[in-house]
Structure to design on (163 residues):
């Protein structure tokens, strides 16, 4: 069950060496263990990307948003489940480019979290040493509606700006 995990990855770009298949959803980090998002993200990096230079300096002092934003630079979508006893909620961090398989998987995932309040972060930039992003955070929309908004309005507008 999705609420049993703290983190979900929707992989982009096949990488057989790292056991990564484009569009695959991986649930990671058992909520029951009491471990933190940060520790699980660092463990995932150590297992999947021990050789990537810009990830090597990350440690337990980094917040999960910063670590996840850097993971999106590898082409993966990251979902941080921030639910508590009162509500289901999560943050979806999107890479700049999303494959067709990831797009299909993200809609499948939206159905899995249909009862969640969702926040979407995208277009990560580094400003004065701080990672910044744009956010979609309409608590009245379903996760699917928010993802539709991203693909139909925001990503479409970003593509047109580049033309």
């Amino acid at each position: 069950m999705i609420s049993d995990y703290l983190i979900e990855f929707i992989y982009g770009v096949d990488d057989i060496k790292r056991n990564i298949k484009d569009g695959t959803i991986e649930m990671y980090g058992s909520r029951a263990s009491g471990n933190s998002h940060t520790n699980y993200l660092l463990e995932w990096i150590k297992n999947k990307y021990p050789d990537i230079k810009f990830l090597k300096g990350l440690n337990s002092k980094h917040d999960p948003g910063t670590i996840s934003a850097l993971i999106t630079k590898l082409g993966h979508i990251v979902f941080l489940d921030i639910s508590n006893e009162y509500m289901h909620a999560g943050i979806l961090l999107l890479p700049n480019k999303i494959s067709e398989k990831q797009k299909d998987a993200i809609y499948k995932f939206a159905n899995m979290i249909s009862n969640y309040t969702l926040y979407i972060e995208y277009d990560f930039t580094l400003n004065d040493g701080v990672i910044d992003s744009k956010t979609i955070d309409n608590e009245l929309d379903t996760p699917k509606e928010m993802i539709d908004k991203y693909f139909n309005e925001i990503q479409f507008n970003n593509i047109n700006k580049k033309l």
About this structure: The mean pLDDT is 91.
